[in-house]
Amino acid sequence: MTLTTDAACRSAVAADALDGLTADPEKRELYRYDTYLREGLASFEGMRALARSHAVTFVVLKPDAVAGRRCRRLLDVLSEEGWFPLAATTVRFEPLLTRELWRYQFNAASRQRIAVVDHLLGSGPSLLVLLGDARRPEWLPASVRLTAAKGSADPEAASGADLRTRIGRVNGLFNFMHTADDPADVIRELQLFSYQAGWDWCRQALTSGGPGQPPVPDGDPTHDLLRELEAGIPQHDLDLALSLRRLEKGTDTWAELARTAAAPEHIDVWLSELGRTPLPYGSARWDVLSVVTGWIDCNEPGVLPLLATSSAHAWQHAAPGAAAPTKEGETWPS
Predict the structure, then answer these.
(1) What does the DSSP assignment read for 244-299?
(2) Which of 174, 153, 148, 101 shows the shortest CA–CA distance to 332?
(3) CA-to-CA distance for 172 and 295, rounded, in angstroms?
(4) In this structure, are residues 99 and 109 in contact, taking their beta carbons and an 8 Å threshold?
(5) Distances (CA, A) of 206 to 10, 51, 191, 196
């Protein structure tokens, strides 16, 4: 990474530092002023891992994936499509991490989503898995191929072939997974996770010279971690109607709401209660979350994110004989 010492410059990151790390010119410019990207570049350079930023990516399996028991299914589907785990650890989403991870998309989040997201992501640890990619074309980064395959967080934009649909997505917040959009985001977001998880969990995988290989039997780094996560979060069907029926049999505030405000038009009543009453323990927590995630509007109408998700087509200029790059907008955090 070449630093500039121009006194008039407002970035210590050179103008060409992100060339090859993102196909989005807006992101290339904006990320020059992003603290986490700058530190991430330094971290990757210190590990001599910049060359690996195209070959690896990651997936975060969120607490709803653990509660809904989608983790093993998702990892199986990823394996079928050519991705394999290289390293894994756990992370906990705190409000600041959530807002910084999605700093350039959260401006479009509705107040309803903001009211719910910390309760959801804070419901337990998430599984962070570094992935290799056995099937990517040489010109296409692993992160970009996975983002394209994952599908939109918006259920209305889903296709039957995308990963979220294949593992049984429920709604806009119960979408189970997060991935980095491109190599720039792999670097930036792993840096963000490093403040909590460090680098030792993935250093070897990032610094190895080859592309990596699928783990040997019983060598999957996710196995023990998944067992621990599933032991800590009860299995749940994530079904809104069934959750209401279970809640209404109780005696607490949430039971009262399930009996007297059991319709989407009462979502603000539920969110008001969410702001002052702790969620119940165990399975009932997921009953409440199933209700509120099913009824909220996730985005502010007419508000676009600061940075949209680039499509895989934007990287085709790197392929032999490719057409000019294009860009598609993605209005939901991925």
Answers:
(1) HHHHTTSSSHHHHHHHH--SGGGHHHHHHHHTTSPPPSTHHHHHHHHHHHHH---B
(2) 153
(3) 10
(4) no
(5) 30, 9, 13, 18
Q: Are 164 and 176 in contact (CB under 8 A)?
A: yes
Extract the tokens encoding 240: 């809104």
Question: Model confidence over 43-80: pLDDT tens digits?
Answer: 999 999 999 999 999 999 999 999 999 999 999 999 99
Domains in the chain (CATH in brackets) are 52-234 (3.30.70.141), 240-295 (no CATH)
CA angle 153, 158, 159 (to 5 degrees): 145
Largest Cα span, the chain: 67
Determine the residue type at 282.
Answer: G
Q: Using an 8 Å Cβ cutoff, are 174 and 21 in contact?
A: no
Sign of CA dihedral 62, 64, 70, 71: positive
Query: How far is Cα 262 from Cα 270, in angstroms, rounded to an integer?
Result: 10
Record the pTM: 0.90
Question: Does residue 32 contact residue 11 with C-beta atoms inside 8 Å?
Answer: yes
Distance linking the first and last C-alpha atoms of the chain: 28
